[in-house]
Amino acid sequence: MTDTSAFIAGLPKAELHLHIEGSLEPELMFALGRRNNVDLPFRSVEEVRAAYEFSNLQDFLDIYYQGAAVLQTEQDFHDLAMAYFDRLAADGGVHAEIFFDPQTHTDRGLPFSVAIEGLLSGMRAAEARHGLTSKLIMCFLRHLDEDAAFNTLRAAEPWLDRITGVGLDSSEVGHPPSKFEKVFKAAGERGLLRVAHAGEEGPPAYVWEALDLLHVDRIDHGNRSLEDEALTARLVAQEMTLTVCPLSNHKLCVVDDLTRHPLKRMLDLGLKATINSDDPAYFGGYIGANYQAVTQSLGLTRADLVTLARNSFTGSFLDEERVALHLQAIDAYAAGPV
Ligand code: ADE
Ligand code: ZN
Question: The whole model's pTM is what?
Answer without folding.
Answer: 0.98
